[in-house]
Amino acid sequence: MMSQEKNDELTRVGAGTPGGDMLRQYWMPAALTEELEQDRPVVPVNLLGEKLALFRNENDELVLMDRHCPHRGADMCFGRVEEGGIRCPFHGWKFDESGQCTEQPGEPNGSTMHKNIKINSYPVKEANGIIFAYLGSGEPPAFPAFDCFNAPESHVFSFKGLWECNWLQALEVGIDPAHASFLHRFLQDEDPKDSYGKQFRDTAADSEMPMTKVLREFPQPEIKVEDTDYGMRIIALRDLNNGSSHVRLTNQVFPCAITIPMSNEMTITQWHVPIDDENCYWFSMFTSFGQPVDKETMRAQRIKEHTLPEYAPIRNKRNDYGYNREEQETLTYTGMGLDINVHDQWACESMGPIQDRTNEHLGTTDKAIIQHRRKLRKAMAIVAEGGDRSQLPLHVDAEKAKEIKGPIAVDAIAPSEQWEEAWKERDAQRRAACEWDAKL
Ligand code: FES
Ligand SMILES: [Fe+2]
């Protein structure tokens, strides 16, 4: 259990809060590239409690700036994108890419008022289908040499979805290896051949055993957590009672992402990005070590579960996530369909907009959650005290960033005493066979 004050510290995301200031030291996914693929490439972005407008200018460069005009607050998402910036349609004030007001056509000739008006404009960077933004002060950290960034565009599919809850509870479900045996339990195994693009539906590596069976029949994983240069490696070992063990490697990527195996050929790197204190987006990069990603199939699977332009899930708290009592008895543990994303969404949203951690009771399986909260607090203290930002996890320069690779996310089954060699071998094999340079 924690005090209300400590829970607020961990969960609030606005500028000037300890958590918000720490999160601003990192690149955050702001939008999908596909959102700007329209006649008028301007979209609203709500990020870390800030209301912003993202657009492509005349030269096709991305610009992210305050959404509300500093004159009388009109919505710049309806602005006129012109050479040299964007113009508010209310009274014609114009702003350049840096956010500087350059024209106020209704003011008297010779007025210099515009010189003193500047709105926030933030650096953005595009990588494999996601547009990242840096809302912090000082130099942003470099992008690490993660697989999801190294892989060519053909081997990465990106998507996002809205969850109506605080970002931290959304992240914490991803660093909790025990829940998969319950929340995502399938009471029957389907044919793993139909598993493309779905999680936990392949066979466990090097075996004929469907992952659904491993998770269902062995619900007490031994969990090991290791500190790494990007965050944490989380190892879940399931002793299969026949001399062999299932090992599953997942990762926490500081501060708000995870990298996990999806199938034998794909991993998922997923950021849980605060929109504000009570809402967040997951942004995922599905990265393939095998075939190029079938983006059409992957997108169709996900689009049919969401409404645009918000990427809001069709199953949500207003329709009980499609809960069905009969299904809960016969098919799934939750009764909420076969899409495991919906299960996670229910688990996180049902806690309330911000989980009341003054009432929680953490168990042995919450090891990684406990360690991650410690790391968050440590990072928040460094930022609050104006300390050396190179002490923050993953806050690295370009040289150092080249060395931060992977993270390895893999499933394997091996003789119990060889589990450590087994995941290394399994990962090395697929990297060696990979079309793009996936060497570690
Ligand atoms: S509100 Fe934007 S120019 Fe007046
Ligand atoms: Fe889950």
Automatic annotation (TrEMBL):
<dbReference type="InterPro" id="IPR015881">
    <property type="entry name" value="ARHD_Rieske_2Fe_2S"/>
</dbReference>
<dbReference type="Pfam" id="PF19301">
    <property type="entry name" value="LigXa_C"/>
</dbReference>
<keyword id="KW-0479">Metal-binding</keyword>
<dbReference type="InterPro" id="IPR036922">
    <property type="entry name" value="Rieske_2Fe-2S_sf"/>
</dbReference>
<dbReference type="InterPro" id="IPR050584">
    <property type="entry name" value="Cholesterol_7-desaturase"/>
</dbReference>
<dbReference type="InterPro" id="IPR017941">
    <property type="entry name" value="Rieske_2Fe-2S"/>
</dbReference>
<feature type="domain" description="Rieske">
    <location>
        <begin position="27"/>
        <end position="133"/>
    </location>
</feature>
<keyword id="KW-0408">Iron</keyword>
<keyword id="KW-0560">Oxidoreductase</keyword>
<keyword id="KW-0411">Iron-sulfur</keyword>
<protein>
    <submittedName>
        <fullName>Ring-hydroxylating oxygenase subunit alpha</fullName>
    </submittedName>
</protein>
<keyword id="KW-0001">2Fe-2S</keyword>
<dbReference type="InterPro" id="IPR045623">
    <property type="entry name" value="LigXa_C"/>
</dbReference>
<dbReference type="Pfam" id="PF00355">
    <property type="entry name" value="Rieske"/>
</dbReference>
